[in-house]
Specification:
The protein is an alpha/beta fold. The chain has 17 helices and 24 strands. The chain folds into 5 domains: 121 residues, Periplasmic binding protein-like II (D-Maltodextrin-Binding Protein, domain 2, 3-Layer(aba) Sandwich); 81 residues, D-Maltodextrin-Binding Protein, domain 2 (3-Layer(aba) Sandwich), CATH 3.40.190; 78 residues, Double Stranded RNA Binding Domain; 110 residues, Rossmann fold; 117 residues, Rossmann fold, CATH 3.40.50.10090. It is globular.
Amino acid sequence: MINKLVVGTRASKLALKQTNYVINKLKEINPSIKFVLKKIKTKGDILLDKDLNKIIDKGFFVSEIQNELLNNSIDIAVHSLKDLPSEGNSNLSSFTVTEREDPMDVLVTKKELKEKSIKGLKLIGTSSVRRKKQIQMINKDLQIKSIRGNVETRIKKLDNGEYDGIILAAAGLKRLGLENRVSKSFNINEMTPAAGQGALAVEFRKNDKKTFSILKKIQHESTEICVNEERNFLKTVGGGCSSPDAVLCIFEKNKLKIKGKIFDHTIGKYVSGSMIKEIGDHKNIGVKLAKQIMSKLSPKIIKHIILTNEGDITGFKSLLSNDLQIHHFPLININPIDFNHKDLKIYDYIVFTSKNGVKNFLDKVDIPNDMKFICIGNKTEKILNEYGFKSAFTPKRNYSTLMASELKKNKLINGRKVLLVQGEIANNDFNLKLGNFCNVDRLNVYETNLVRSYNERLKKMLMSKNTFTVFTSPSAFDAFIKFYDAKNTNIISIGNTTTKYINSKGHDCMLTSKMQSYEGISESIIRYFNQI
């Protein structure tokens, strides 16, 4: 018998309202159980300066809460369903609880603004691509400015004159008792909502049958049916939390009615559709509607992604499943160089900044049994693991300032003797920043050589306006401009260092990834094409 359940939630006022609402419903049925509330800050609550549409983390508002579940720090979590990625964690289960609140979107305008019509406004605040695309279908002249923060913060920004109006979910305003701020409620044709909007979900460990049996008592069956069909629609379309696509499913007179919109990027407009099925014959109505609308979309323009990196390109495989064609034209070659090093026993840590550094170093040296390692990035750590060693710490961000600050904060190497293993071409920024708090020696173990001739096939491909060239290092860009005109392609950069170098050569980057990894830049590319 369960006597206590620890409930995890985000710390915003709305999240706490929603969680306490769920707890009260559970208490009505289980008065003997003690419920303990645990507030958890997610990246979405901390990184308030980040544009949601440039964020690649699919669990931006839930990952930290899910980690607490997996670590047994909490027993259940309460989420806004639309924050939950459709690809769930294999060790966790979730479903909707309590009846869904109003799923629609609403317009909130400044208190002193008499004009309540969209056509009378100039600047609208929203961080949602879906809302942006739909509102511009109503008034193409509207200016859209991103807005972040909880509901109260957004309304405060509005009343301070930063916006003429903002678009919010009706459910959030109602749960906070702020219905009086609604200036206009959008109908389903004007603003079709996000999949699952207005619904609450509970998440728990999949093997926790006792907790499941308690939560199941407040599951709302019709809500569950509707939101599952909405999420099936979105999954079939290939969209996610930041997708411009929209869908709403409702019960109406013993029938299930669903309406969806898919944004056709080729023509810059939505293609809509709806479907009605009798209860009992409604299974997969979301999938069927998605396929029906997708059959009406314009033929897709093939986009060619040119990869210029040396070596393995498996990190880019997600591009293939998103109707993008990838072409690999390596523009640099990595070659080992001879090196001499001091007795490794004098070092407390060896720091690797790349997988090539790991390979070219460990293939040539004998490692003391008690040596400790630090890796920069997951790829580097993975290669180190393949050699039978573990990383004591792995900063995930690859900018020299951020890496150094993470290591300094971690205190592992503060005041220690460190060997920094790098490639010959790497700049000295990271080395200098480490030198501020530890005793560091740099060792170069490989060199980067540029290709010495041009590729006729690549030259022909660059004649098409639908080519997008990915540069993962300044040296790759140097090799490119030696033989090709960078003005003939759309430039995509793996990170700020590469972008700054490309800019210094007089060229602009169409896109700069926020995460310096092949998977990260792939996510950025997919997100970019889903928005334009």
